[in-house]
Specification:
The chain is of the alpha/beta class and about 190 residues long. It contains 7 helices and 6 strands, in the order βαβαβαβαβαβαα. The longest helix is centred in the C-terminal third of the chain and has 19 residues, at about 170-190.
Length: about 190
């Protein structure tokens, strides 16, 4: 099917995320990190394998420990559970599989990190979040997967751990920049 170029189309968001609506106001001082995973390794996309995905998760845990922040990982339902073995053994990281656990993690987190995912969209709208889209793939997809989100200004793309660390060192300023873009993002991308 193909719509004519002049056909009026209105993107209304993702009603399946309505369960997050009451997360719009986080805890008094949210400081954790929530990571929205994607199952690229299950389909061998962009160079991802179970081995390098497990290594990525280990680095993510180490990164959050260096930042002195609790890490919540929203596991992708299609990912092999073995890639999360280091999370199970970690004291500062937790896996999330259920909606109520995810809501709790979101409300405790001021930092949202994820690969290309529509689940990032409602989190980008929350006033207390600063959001990062990871473009850290073992093999370049040839284009930026999350460019449509990055263009909104409500999320910042990062390409490696060092850049993410440098960016977090000036988190307050980046949060102010993204906060200015949240209202237009909501108007243009989310349904009301």
């Amino acid at each position: 099917d193909h719509l004519p170029d002049d056909y009026p189309v209105t993107f209304i968001g993702c009603p399946s995320f309505d369960y997050l609506a009451d997360c719009a106001f986080g805890e008094d001082e949210p400081s954790d990190i929530v990571f929205i995973d994607n199952a690229f390794e299950s389909q061998h996309l962009f160079g991802w394998t179970k081995t390098n995905k497990k290594e990525f998760i280990r680095k993510l845990i180490n990164f959050s420990q260096k930042q002195k922040r609790t890490l919540w990982i929203k596991a992708h339902p299609y990912s092999d559970p073995h890639v999360y073995a280091d999370v199970i053994a970690s004291e500062n990281a937790s896996l999330i599989y259920k909606e109520d656990e995810f809501r709790k993690a979101v409300m405790r987190s001021s930092i949202v990190i994820g690969f290309y995912s529509t689940l990032l969209m409602p989190l980008m709208a929350f006033p207390y979040t600063t959001c990062f889209s990871l473009e850290m793939h073992p093999r370049s997809p040839g284009f930026k997967l999350s460019s449509f989100l990055v263009r909104t200004g409500a999320i910042t793309e990062v390409y490696n751990w060092e850049q993410l660390g440098r960016t977090l060192s000036n988190l307050a300023e980046l949060h102010r920049q993204q906060a200015r873009m949240k209202a237009p993002f909501i108007d243009n991308w989310l349904y009301k």
